[in-house]
Amino acid sequence: MNSFLFVSLPHIETLYPAAAFGALQPVVKKSNLQMHLQDVNVTLKHTVSADVFDEITNWSMFAKHDLSPEAEQCLLQAFQDNIDFTKSGWIGISVFSFAVARATVRFLKWMQTQTHNFKIVLGGNGCMSVLAEYGETEFGQWCLDQKICDYVVFGEGEKALENLLQGNSDYPGINNTNFQQIKNLDDLDLPDYSNINWQQYTDPRIMITGSRGCVRNCTFCDIALSWPKFTYRSAEKMVDEIKRMVNDHGMTRFEFTDSLINGSVKNFNRFNEQLIEAKQKDSSLEPVTYIGQFICRSAQTMPPETYELMHHAGCNQITVGIESFSERVRYHMKKKFSDADVDYHFEQCARWRIPNVILMIVGYPTETLADHMANIRALQKYKTYSDMGIIFMVRWGFTMTLFEGTPIAALKDELGLIEINQGHSDSVFNWVSTKNPTLDLRERIRRRLQLHELGVDLGYAMPNSKKELMRMLEVSKEYKGQTLIKAVAI
Amino acid sequence: MKHSVEIVHPQLSSYKIYVDGQLQQENDCVSSITLELDESPVPYSIWFTPWKIQPMIRIDGFLVDYGVAEIDLFDHMFKIKLDSDFYARYNSNELKFRGASLDLTDEYIYDSLIGVGNRHSEVVTKIKTVLNIE
Q1: Are the Cβ atoms of A446 and B133 closer than 8 angstroms?
Q2: Which candidate from A350, A351, A463 shows the least CB-CB separation from B112?
Q3: How far apart, in Å, are the Cα atoms of A193 and each of A124, A246, A481, B78?
């Protein structure tokens, strides 16, 4: 009883290790357990074909109903390769999001067929996901009800897991959703990434947490389920962590796990100032760079000095949810920034050479043809920013998909949203709005293709296009036509 | 067409602009100067004082990378070509550097990490056929 196997299952990123491993290792060590990272994703990445890997990804993302026998076999083999049954203790599964749910269930059922001496605990945001496939209740609760795991930690893991491993299973959030959000992130131990085989990752970097939660409440985002309040760490603690990681691992590339790194502009500025100062004092910190998610703000709330500090501190990429170039659509999404703010943001990023990965949603329920044309015009308007690498990538995604648990689910009546069951209702691609009935699945995909083709013509970087298009092809096959839409809409 | 060229360094105190060995302009400045330069097939040589500084250079508001912009930096000056292909060349170099450590002959890697210029016409056509999109 001395091991804690931290298991990462599909589908999460395979370029670098999960942040949760580093965050939880100090907690696990306090209970005198040896923590091991068992990354099933990486095993699959290195052992199966790209087609099989994509198939498992699509299945995990609820865009494909079933796994082929070959993919199923590969998945089971990856489980086998990662679990050492001579060990005993705990298995902790990181259910990072809803996209890990299916593989988690497959893993837990496989574990039931094995003889083992592990207690199994699930944790992560995906435990709070309400999924039709799993009883329309929180996924973690469904797993408990099915008796396929021993414990589920809802909400943040650090305090709850510490209590669980020390025998207190009554701590809030263990096997119930009454978790208490950690109020002071500075109280947490610094992450510990020791005992990781960095060689198995193709783009290694250290994940760092500066904040949890968000200052916005966008209609399509479920982050508030896990972190109802926005909390952030002190700038000093973040810089201390960077110094420690550079010293311990020689790693100088950092990625923030935050939903947004500029939730508190004041603290973000202070962090950048402190990092610049630390670099000036210690040359080993000079190569430090960081990337993270970011919100577009007005010049009033985020002055040019912030961008200048980011540049000097080593920010070399941000991911920004622009979502739509139509101000009207963004207003409904509650994004809270104007077209002028977008212009200002790109100008400042150009001025300080800060590349942007921009995230877009095509076919938001209120999106009209005029709004779509705003996207078309923006691609032409911002072409130079793409040429110069400031719009580093555009991610158009799969068109607007409805997820339970996001605020938009509460707006179904207001928007007249009708889901058209296509067999995998946990990611509803096929829906129509009675308030905007011409925007059916076919029209959303038409707009998505138009943006893809124009983006190609204008030279925009749009990675993963083939994968996204292939998934749209699968979804397209389930389109039943306007007749059904009209019938349902009536 | 003109390009705005902003040169910034805390110690920058003067500059001279040469084209084809001919002095075009010179002046003192404090920390920065913004020049309006005509598009030209002949590179500009922009001298600066003090020597041995590495100023930040912005072209039309874009802070450029020396390598990507093909700027040759010397102790006393830098050379830059601001011809009609400047943006296209910057873009081409930027993509080249982006993929420098990748095997770009692998379609999967190219699509996953670069994703420029690939229409994926076969898949697009299939989708259009299935959905009867013209």
Answers
A1: yes
A2: A463
A3: 18, 12, 52, 44
Nearest-angstrom CA–CA distance, A422 and A406: 20
**Model ipTM?**
0.95
Taking only the tens place, the pLDDT of each residue in A188-240 is 999 999 988 888 887 789 999 999 999 999 999 988 888 889 999 999 999 99
Q: Are A204 and A253 contacting, i.e. CB atoms less than 8 angstroms apart?
A: yes
Helix (H) or strand (E) holding A283: none
Query: Would residue B96 count as lying in a domain?
Result: no
For the stretch A383-417, pLDDT in tens is 999 999 999 999 999 899 887 778 998 898 899 98
Does residue B94 lie within any of the structural domains?
no
Residue A24 scores a pLDDT above 70 = yes
Q: Does A114 touch chain B (CB under 8 A)?
A: no
- For A126, phi and psi rounded to 5 degrees? -60, -20
Q: For residue B69, what is the nearest residue in chain A, using CA coordinates?
A: A388
Task: State pLDDT tens for residues A139-172.
Answer: 999 999 999 999 999 999 999 999 999 999 999 9
- State the total domains in chain B: 2
Same domain, B127 and B62: no
B87: closest chain A residue by CA: A387
A320 min Cα distance to partner chain B (Å): 18
Task: Give the range of the structural domain holding residue B114, as residue numbers without chain letter.
Answer: 102-131
Backbone angles phi, psi at B127, to 5 degrees: -60, -45
Contact A353 B64 (CB under 8 A): yes
In chain B, what residues touch A452 (CB-CB under 8 Å)? 119-120, 124
Residues B126 and B80 in one domain: no
pLDDT tens for B34-60 read 999 999 999 999 999 999 999 999 999
CB atoms A462 and B64 under 8 Å: no
Structure tokens at A484: 């059904």
Task: Dump the DSSP string for A93-127.
Answer: EE--SGGGHHHHHHHHHHHHTS---EEEEEESGGG
Domains annotated on chain A, with CATH:
3-181 (3.40.50), 186-489 (3.20.20.70)
Alpha carbon distance B110, B117 (integer Å): 10
Query: Is there a contact between B91 and A459 if contact means CB atoms under 8 Å apart?
Result: yes
